[in-house]
Design goal:
Elements lengths: L4 E5 L3 E7 L3 H6 L14 E7 L5 E9 L4 E6 L3 H12 L5 E5 L3 E6 L11 E3 L8 E4 L8 E2 L2 H11 L4 H4 L27 H10 L4 E8 L9 E4 L2 E10 L2 E7 H4 L4 E3 L2 E5 L6 H8 L1
Parallel strand pairs: 1-10
Antiparallel strand pairs: 1-7, 2-5, 2-6, 3-4, 4-5, 7-9, 8-9, 11-14, 11-16, 12-13, 12-15, 13-14, 15-16
Length: 280
């Protein structure tokens, strides 16, 4: 069976160019990911947190020959630029909007071949393919809408900004620790104390997982029940499947009810080891 490769532009994403002598050390003290060892042509997934450790904005840091890019949500790009400018103080850092379009290349199964051009492997999961910057569709790739990419992420059980919002969720609840989004060895960053404490304690009570059901997705925030007990709430989704923030001690391996309908939680293979203790 041949592999189908899809190309999608991501209008929901936009770029901030970073440069100057201090750009690495500047970002190193702010975000959850290590920047000092980032190489040109490599992307790393991370986040900017509140001082209390809640997730403000996700981002990909992309290494370039000189400086880097921050691949961020387009709707929040101006706010992120303002926040970075506030933190800059006397650091020799250059920050500017970059209008190169963001794209993605992924396959219906497995991993596509990396094409020529400015493409970097998605650092979260290999199945998520390659992120492209200022590129055209590679030969043979089928051009699809961004919604097709979002459906692929949901099939893989990978949450996104529509699920965690801003200043509401802890990054570990959104599985950043399992998707290579936090470097716990890099030292201090904004919100590091709370994030490290949650990880050290070893017992994560809530995580984002997909749920399956019949019919259209329930509204965002719909309560998920196991018997009469609350087991979580619905986040983003589509027909038959949605992301949910679930209590691991209640929601795994049991029959759930959402919007009056039966449902069940699915544990993606890449999460199985992490949630196994909670399911036991």
């Amino acid at each position: 069976m041949s592999q189908t490769v899809a190309f999608a532009q991501l209008p929901s994403r936009a770029l901030i160019a970073v440069g100057g002598p201090d750009w690495r050390s500047f970002l190193q003290g702010l975000i959850t990911q290590d920047v000092e060892t980032l190489e040109s042509g490599e992307a790393r997934f991370g986040a900017l947190l509140t001082p209390q450790g809640r997730l403000l904005y996700d981002l990909f840091i992309v290494g370039r020959d000189e400086g880097g890019w921050l691949d961020v949500e387009a709707v929040h790009r101006e706010a992120i630029l303002q926040r970075l400018t506030m933190y800059r103080l006397r650091a020799k850092v250059e920050l500017a909007l970059d209008e190169a379009p963001v794209s993605i290349l992924f396959a219906d199964s497995g991993v596509p071949t990396r094409p020529a051009g400015v493409w970097v492997a998605d650092p979260r999961l290999s199945e998520l393919g390659f992120r492209g910057y200022g590129v055209e569709p590679p030969p043979g790739a089928e051009t699809v809408a961004e919604a097709t990419r979002e459906a692929q992420k949901l099939r893989l059980g990978v949450p996104g900004p529509a699920d965690w919002g801003s200043d509401k969720t802890y990054p570990i609840e959104a599985n950043f620790d399992l998707l290579n989004g936090i470097d716990f060895k890099k030292g201090c960053f904004v919100g590091q104390e709370t994030t490290s404490r949650m990880k050290r304690r070893g017992t994560i009570k809530n995580r984002m997982l997909p749920i399956v059901f019949e019919g259209p997705a329930p509204a965002f925030g719909t309560e998920i029940l196991v018997g009469d007990l609350r087991a979580g709430e619905v986040l983003s989704g589509g027909d038959g499947r949605a992301m949910a923030l679930l209590r691991l001690d209640r929601a795994l391996g049991v029959d759930l009810i959402v919007d009056g309908r039966p449902a069940r939680a699915e544990v993606p293979a890449w999460m199985a080891e992490a949630v196994a203790p909670a399911a036991a």
